Amino acid sequence: MTSWIEIPAASPFPANNLPYGIVSKDGGRRHVAVAIGDQVLSLAATANTGLLDDALRDEFGVVDRAIFDAPSLNPFLVKGFDVWHAVRVRLLELVADGSYEPALRSALVARSDVTVHLPVEVADYVDFYSFEEHAGNVGRLFRPNQPPLLPNWHRLPVGYHGRAGTIVVSGTDIVRPSGQRLVDGEPEYGPSLRLDIEAEVGFVVGTPSPQGSSVSTVDFERTVFGAVLVNDWSARDIQAFEYVPLGPFLGKSFATSISPWVVPLEALAAARVPAPAQDPVPADYLLPAGNAYDLSLAVDWNGSTVSRPPFAGMYWTAAQQLAHLTVNGASVRTGDLYASGTVSGPRPGGSGCFLELTWGGAEPVTLDDGSERVFLADGDTITITGTAPGADGTTIGFGEVTGTILPARG
Amino acid sequence: MTSWIEIPAASPFPANNLPYGIVSKDGGRRHVAVAIGDQVLSLAATANTGLLDDALRDEFGVVDRAIFDAPSLNPFLVKGFDVWHAVRVRLLELVADGSYEPALRSALVARSDVTVHLPVEVADYVDFYSFEEHAGNVGRLFRPNQPPLLPNWHRLPVGYHGRAGTIVVSGTDIVRPSGQRLVDGEPEYGPSLRLDIEAEVGFVVGTPSPQGSSVSTVDFERTVFGAVLVNDWSARDIQAFEYVPLGPFLGKSFATSISPWVVPLEALAAARVPAPAQDPVPADYLLPAGNAYDLSLAVDWNGSTVSRPPFAGMYWTAAQQLAHLTVNGASVRTGDLYASGTVSGPRPGGSGCFLELTWGGAEPVTLDDGSERVFLADGDTITITGTAPGADGTTIGFGEVTGTILPARG
């Protein structure tokens, strides 16, 4: 589609993407914007023109323009699918039709002139483990004398709760964590020596569900608003010592980075592909499975692309993850984030973490500057990008999730 | 201490307890109150009299009375230790000195006339596993062919993240969860057949800490505001099938109940006792260990007291749990809740869960009505109470955490 807004050809943000984020300018108030080309369109300013009133009008005729004049997307997300859809349809009109340019020109700001913030006030954070290649590889590395996949893995989407309070927006520096890890077989306190990444895709819940009921797979698109890229930083040595029997804790909880732009599921409609076959047939509550998404990720280590994890092969769909998460009656809340698990295909080119890429540190990778790495060094920068096919041959970009490692503190 | 407010001799809420909660009356606005005897003293109303102004005045001379006219304790908790202390000192004066009765009489309401609500907007929820008896018993039952305690257990307080969004206040009914569990060795979906409790003590964080730094054990009392009783409902069959390798998930996430009254740590000063000896000596970041608390818990099953779990024997102190939680640079936020882990002593009389009490279901307990139980039946009510020694021979009560099991939903 065309737009009166100039959009560079290779932009991750064509006019049919319109991902949502939180921006501020010159230290001013945080508010909602969508990214388009090299600019952002302030939705706080757009709403003030009245041009979104029809999309925002509720069943009592009340228009709440203030939902975009907010420091997180949550007030918009809680409105539910019908409002998400109406606002998106209206925004697609507004950026396509040049007659709106006079009213909206001042609502546009260069993306380089704004600061992006954490887009969502995260309620609960769940991390799944739904890539067979990753789960198998981690099993082989962490539990070498046992079958790599446990009996539950093909029966349900294994997952666990992470720390919501340490989710940070792309660009935030990551302090190397310290903790207890085995050195020559003895636990010793110190900075992590095996600091890793996990390239994932995260799903942001908009519509809450009541406690004591569950969300069906078919309600996925009415419940989940959109998707972000996730880097679930992982200290493998701390994790290895602590994780039996209650799962990962300090090895993960120091920081999780997400991309600043939440891509609406509606912008990913053209990326829907059939989900992989599942054997055995899943329990009824996990059916219908829903679709996979054909996203392509790339992991850059100090500028060298070291892997391209393929997302479409995820064994359990995002709809199944949501249904599983709630089948016991657990509620979801607006702002819940659940992540796919490390996106991995055949190694090394498809590995979404360095544990797999370097086979537990045994096979170093060489970066473009000739230096070798097994895990992250202080000063290293990791940038994960992602794209999906959009309508009419366009490419929907996620924006990047990037972070640089700072030395451990005292 | 004496008070102009009438306090029954056996009340869990003597005049030196003053635990904080959120109440409403006749469907009105939720606000902060303290429990005293059979009544509650509205702090929203007390603040309106001006009698708390000196305690609330900040370094700029500003008095924010509105922190008590709020639907959670969070606005008060975020003010930090100096304000908690000043308000407590002032409240102790106000309830002791009869000259304040005319001003405050109308701020008192019978406890039976108010509804209690979730006292805290819970940020992140962490559940520890710090009772040696419990961890050993669970190990013996879940992993019969391995050493019951893993090498990490005496080195660090093992814990994991739970679901903050399904924490509910005492009195909330609990719908029996469904999920996949093994039946004759095969996974099958259905209502949990081994629904259990976990009697715990939870610590509520008031003062936030920045990401990338850690909280020392000596800062425990400036960081943690107070304590509640916790019932971490657990579906043992769902948990057993799902929990390897990432830990408990759906077996726990359907509901966690907490008592409505947050007892300030300052009210527990007389309950401080030396922490148990720790061997091996913990890592430096876990020292000094801080103190244990001599709390006594009782678990009632349909009115029959089935166990009295002793809290003072907790291997890792609450201060050590906090230090561990943050040693990797994870921040804490106002409203974070971390729980002790199942409080257990020698079985059966000291068991804080039915898995231990009935030895995995092998040894039924007989209730006072002659009926037998191994796990929870629909309609069963569990009530956990707790007390601690207070100053001058008084007894500090926690109020109860109670819940009734409803049948699984279709």
Describe the model.
Two copies of one chain form a homodimer. Chain A has 410 residues and is an alpha+beta fold. Chain A folds into two domains: 20-117, SH3 type barrels; 125-406, Alpha-Beta Complex (Fumarylacetoacetate hydrolase, domain 2), CATH 3.90.850. Helices cover 18% and strands 27% of the residues of chain A. In chain A, strands 6, 7, 8, 13, 14, 16, 17 and 22 form an eight-stranded mixed beta sheet that branches. In chain A, strands 9, 20, 21, 25, 26 and 27 form a six-stranded mixed beta sheet that branches. A five-stranded antiparallel beta sheet of chain A has the order 4-3-2-1-5. Chain A is globular, with a radius of gyration of 21 Å. Chains A and B meet through strand 7, strand 10, helix 8 and helix 9 of A and strand 7, strand 10, helix 8 and helix 9 of B. Chains A, B: Its cofactor is Mg(2+); Ca(2+).
Name a few traits of the molecule.
homodimer, 410 residues, alpha+beta, SH3 type barrels, Fumarylacetoacetate hydrolase, domain 2, 2 domains, 6-stranded mixed β-sheet, 11 helices
Biggest interface, chains and residues, is: A-B, 62 and 62 residues
Name the helicity range of chain A. Answer: 10-25%
What is the CATH superfamily classification of the largest domain in chain A? Fumarylacetoacetase-like, C-terminal domain
Number of strands of chain A: 27
The multimeric state of the shown protein is homodimer
CATH architecture of the largest domain in chain A: Alpha-Beta Complex
Shape descriptor of chain A:
globular
Radius of gyration of chain A: 21 Å
Total helical segments of chain A? 11
What would the average pLDDT of chain A be, to the nearest integer? Answer: 97
- The number of distinct structural domains of chain A comes to 2
Low-confidence stretches of chain A: none
What summary fits the major beta sheet of chain A? 8 strands, mixed
Q: Structural class from helices and strands of chain A?
A: alpha+beta
CATH hierarchy, class of the largest domain in chain A: Alpha Beta
Question: Remind me, CATH topology of the largest domain in chain A?
Answer: Fumarylacetoacetate hydrolase, domain 2
Which strand-content bin applies to the residues of chain A? Answer: 25-35%
Whole-Å distance between the termini of chain A?
54 Å
